[in-house]
Specification:
Helix content of chain A: 55-70%
Oligomer: heterodimer
Largest interface: A-B, 23 and 24 residues
Strand order of the largest sheet of chain A: 1-2
Order of helices and strands of chain B: HHHHHHHHHHHHHHHHHHH
Chain lengths: 132, 470
């Protein structure tokens, strides 16, 4: 869903770059599945806005999690609509209005839940791979 | 700030590019101005960051736009998330989509209250005669309501539009005068009290007076500017939408009443007399006023329904008429001339006229002739052929039926519509040959409102005395 719109050439190029840097790019379904947890986790650190969230994701994953920038916003709007985050317009240093997002208490609960689930998956896979 | 932005746009090519990009983005109904602002902020930040890395403005813009994703894909993704925005919602008061329309919202709700007040006034007015012992469902003896139903509805609609359009003093006086004269004349008519039936001329008056007065009400709708063809066309559009809204409200009212009868019957109470004497008349006149206001309120929100229906039914009626002509010719059967046959063919012409009128009302006047126009011409041509065949069959025998008021009215209506459709057919042919602009056809139709008003007034006001109130 999230990566559906990235054009193949761009994607291949990104994959090639990632490989050259010794990184693995992540499957698009996995990227989409992890988007909720990622956005909530980043917002749990501090309030933020679209561009900064993307920059953070890129920085944390070393470029392995490739999002088309624009696709972040529908995700943010979906989370806002389900009450996990809330938004407000703030005047940025540049003088422009900027939409900041903040995690709500429901969002924190959701994040805790997501965290448990991802850790379960991680642990399970970890046990298998330790043995082999 | 806006000024600064336009200044920059004039000087800075980057600003120009961003403006164009944003304008393109805003074309999608699923992206609100807030979304566009959010995405623009992202784009600018990205450009600034890329610029800091040493890219030129042009390069930075291209890369940033690319990273943000193709606009098509972006809007599609937004549409998936905000599918509700694809359905335009009727906002009656309060929050307007752009947020900047506070005064507009206040205007809306004031209109709503005025319309509601007038609807209540109409509902009260229609029950005032009951104080003098005139019942709504009474036997036709006095025939008070058939004569006067227009006066319990149309003046209230006219009053709403006179208020909304700030109709001038002379317009108000003129409207009031027409309604008053009509009321006096119709009630002064000495219709005889016939046992068990209503006089034919009274039925004619009851049918034609509302049409004439409705067209007079149109003067209030167009704010007195009834000489302009475009304004009259607006009134035609309004009439079609009002009809559809009224039918929908009436259907809802029917369900409401069926349910109330049912649940009260369950506890052994009969509410039909109350419903018939109160809810039906009050609801019927109140709903007309409310529907008038609703059509105005949703005008720019919902697509007009009447042209949609004509799109569906024009080809079907054209096929029906072709099939009828083919059958008639191949079987050699003539039209079986019965007494009421004229009314049947009048109805056919009314339907064809409506289909033609409402497809013309929604057509872009500057577009070249297309398939829809061919269908219209076929429809009108076949309807004319069928009607001429019917008139031919009737003509030989009309004298033997005698010239009763009903028959003269039906024949007159047939001729009025025949002239209208013939004129339309000629204009259509001219339009196909590139000699006539389509707007001429619209002018012809809107001009015809005068003819309809005059004819309806003649039938309503002159037929009873001419035919001795038979």
């Amino acid at each position: 869903l999230l990566l559906g719109a990235v054009d193949p050439a761009h994607r291949r190029q990104a994959e090639a770059t990632a490989e050259a840097l010794g990184l693995m790019s992540v499957n698009k379904d996995l990227v989409a599945a992890s988007s909720t947890a990622l956005v909530l986790a980043i917002l749990a650190e501090r309030d933020s806005y679209g561009y900064a969230i993307l920059k953070r994701v890129r920085g944390l994953s070393g470029g392995a999690l490739e999002w088309t920038d624009g696709m972040l916003y529908p995700v943010l709007h979906r989370l806002e609509r389900s009450g996990l985050i809330e938004s407000r317009w703030v005047k940025a240093a540049s003088g422009r209005q900027r939409k900041y997002y903040r995690i709500t208490s429901a969002g924190r609960q959701q994040l805790a839940d997501e965290r448990r689930q991802w850790q379960t998956v991680d642990k399970t896979l970890g046990k298998i791979w330790e043995r082999s | 700030m806006d000024e600064k932005r336009t200044d920059n746009a004039a000087v800075d090519p980057l600003e120009k590019q961003i403006q164009a990009w944003r304008a393109h983005l805003r074309k999608s109904p699923t992206i609100t101005s807030q979304d566009a602002a959010e995405l623009e902020d992202h784009l600018r930040e990205q450009i600034a960051s890329l610029g800091a890395d040493g890219l030129s403005n042009d390069e930075a813009f291209l890369v940033a736009v690319k990273r943000l994703g193709a606009i098509d894909a972006l809007t599609r993704e937004f549409a998936r998330e905000h599918s509700d925005r694809l359905w335009k919602q009727l906002v009656l008061s309060g929050d307007q989509a752009d947020g900047s329309a506070g005064s507009l919202a206040a205007g809306w709700s004031r209109k709503m209250w005025v319309a509601l007040g007038l609807a209540v006034a109409a509902a009260v007015a229609i029950k005032i005669p009951a104080l003098f012992g005139i019942q709504f469902d009474a036997e036709p003896g006095g025939a008070f309501y058939p004569r006067n139903i227009s006066f319990f509805t149309l003046p209230f609609i006219a009053a709403y539009f006179a208020w909304d359009r700030s109709l001038g003093r002379w317009g108000r006086i003129g409207l009031l005068g027409v309604f008053a004269v009509a009321a006096v004349v119709v009630n002064a008519f000495p219709f005889p009290s016939l046992p068990g039936r209503i006089p034919h001329t009274l039925v004619l008056t009851a049918l034609h007076l509302p049409i004439a007065l409705w067209l007079v009400t149109g003067i209030a709708y167009v704010g007195g500017h009834w000489r302009g063809s475009d304004r009259r066309m607006d009134f035609i559009r309004f009439t079609g939408e009002l009809f559809i809204y009224y039918v929908l409200i009436a259907l809802g009212g029917g369900v409401l009443m069926a349910v109330s009868v049912g649940i009260f019957e369950a506890i052994g109470i009969k509410v039909e007399p109350f419903l018939q004497n109160w809810i039906v008349p009050c609801g019927a006149v109140g709903a007309a006023v409310i529907a008038s206001w609703l059509v105005e309120a949703k005008q720019s929100v919902i697509e007009n329904m009447a042209p949609v229906l004509t799109r569906i039914f024009a080809p079907l009626f054209a096929l029906l008429l072709i099939a009828f002509i083919v059958t008639m010719v191949s079987t050699g059967r003539g039209i079986d001339v019965k007494r009421e046959i004229l009314i049947l063919f009048d109805l056919l012409l009314v339907v064809v006229f409506g289909l033609l009128l409402y497809s013309a009302s929604a057509r872009d006047s500057t577009a070249p002739p297309g398939l829809a126009d061919w269908i219209q011409l076929t429809l009108v041509g076949t309807a004319l052929a069928v009607d001429v065949l019917a008139l031919w069959a009737i003509g030989s025998r009309i004298s033997e039926f005698g010239f009763s008021p009903n028959r003269v009215a039906a024949l007159g209506e047939n001729i009025v519509l025949l002239v209208n459709l013939s004129g339309s057919a000629l204009l259509y042919v001219g339009f196909f040959r590139g000699k006539v602009a389509f707007s001429r056809l619209c002018d012809w139709q809107t001009f015809y409102l005068y003819v309809f008003a005059a004819w309806a007034a003649v039938v309503a006001a002159l037929f009873p005395p001419i035919f001795g109130f038979a």
